[in-house]
């Protein structure tokens, strides 16, 4: 069965849109981009479109590829102090002259709707209320939507990035899954992935995971977004894996749209915390 991220994300966006309309609120999101990464251009275009659909005002701040760190930090500082801005994201990756951690951590916690700053990451780790990063949050929301319970399940995460692999592992652990994280140095990786009840793949290698990695009946979540001969594809070889899987996310139409919808949800949450003083 297909885990239809497109459909679930539309439902989520419609709930967000309705809430914004009924409460007559005006949340805002600032998007910072440095350089001209083609994947980032697509993500940003989709984020702006989704904001517009839901009634969130987005402000876009592009910087040249060769911009210096201090210019970007100055913009973040300005946005941190601007009470008309509820959420701030810095699209990753940043050019190599920039210290990514420094830039990300310049964003005020209460506006860190990507959940990439140290405070939000720490809160996530200990299970406190926080802005959960959008991709991991979207994966859990998608599983919930199909009533796939994680309790006692073996979740194997392929990839250990700070924005997907590590946080999704933590969220699955909080749902009482038994979690294994595999990565490029893992030995006998297929022996491990073949024991997964739920396999989450975020390795950034087009179609690398084929049927030989999969246990029959596994749930397969493909976070990959790659170009293969001009076509968009995931990290999972869909043709090979889908006959074995009980559930699988397509690419496109799986995790991608969920990520965007969750970012919007974090943005209205930021609005509420800032304007209405709701407890975190
Ligand atoms: N680059 C890849 N995914 C993301 C994301 O969710 N947020 C930001 N800011 N950059 C990304």
Describe the overall structure:
With 280 residues, this protein is an alpha/beta fold. Helix content is 41%, strand content 16%. The chain has helices at residues 5-23, 38-54, 69-81, 100-104, 118-126, 134-145, 165-174, 189-193, 238-241, 255-276; strands at 28-34, 57-63, 87-90, 154-158, 178-182, 198-201, 219-222, 226-228, 231-233, 247-248. The strands form three sheets. It has a five-stranded parallel sheet. The protein has a three-stranded parallel sheet with strand order 2-1-3, with helices on both faces. A two-stranded antiparallel sheet has the order 8-9. α2 links the parallel β1 (28-34) and β2. α2 packs across α10 and α6 packs across α10. The longest helix has 22 residues, at 255-276. It is globular. The mean pLDDT is 96. Bound molecules: guanine. Residues 89-92, 114, 134-135, 163, 259 line the site of guanine.
